[in-house]
Sequence to fold (195 residues):
Amino acid sequence: MEKRIVIVDEDLATRMTLEKMLTEDGHTVMGAGKDGFEAIELCKTHTPDLLIINPDLPVLSGIIAARKAIAENHIKSVIYICDESSEINRKNLEKTKSKKTVGWISKPIHKEALHATIWIGCEQVGVIEQLEKELETLNKKLLERKKIERAKGVLMQEQLLSEPEAYKSIQRLSMQKRTSMAEIADLILLGIKKN
Fold:
């Protein structure tokens, strides 16, 4: 389960430690940065599977940088790392809420905790993405089915066909013209919109 990862933290030692842990775990670190602007640029350039970022970065917060990368579809998931002196408060948790946020880890970072957060979090993101694709496919099929039903109704009314005859007519045209039944239904429905 190798991931392509971008690391962003203002502390060089943290970036180096993370890079070493991640590389040892079989991941590829695509880049490392020290502020939110670098985070955005690195994510645009590399479109990583995972962004590991400190939410409390100077100038541009890691939360805003991650939100921008998420909004522009430059990352698949994000893990926030916080300093041991920082509190993971309710306000920050609310700000980072997203289906792409897979977790929070605290410094000092323990390899086992990092590994578990990446593995469990990225698996969850993968499941969510798969469900969204399936839902999109089902919605598309439902819309196509509705178009076909409406087109059948038009043929039944205009050509005085039975429901099975109207369906077979759409099906036959679809096969003859080597296009989908939904495309034929669109054309039939376009015909009634002109009238």
